[in-house]
Amino acid sequence: MISLRVLCPEDENLLLSWRNKPDVAQWMYAEGLVTPIEHHGWFKRILAGGNWRYWVVVADERSVGIVNLTKISTHQRCCEFGMYVGEESARGTGAAAAAVYLALDQAFDVLQMHRVVCEALAHNDRAIGLYERIGFRREGLLRERIPRDGTYLDVAVLAVLASEWSTLRPGLSHQLSERNLIERGDVHE
Question: Is the model's pTM score more than 0.70?
Answer without folding.
Answer: yes
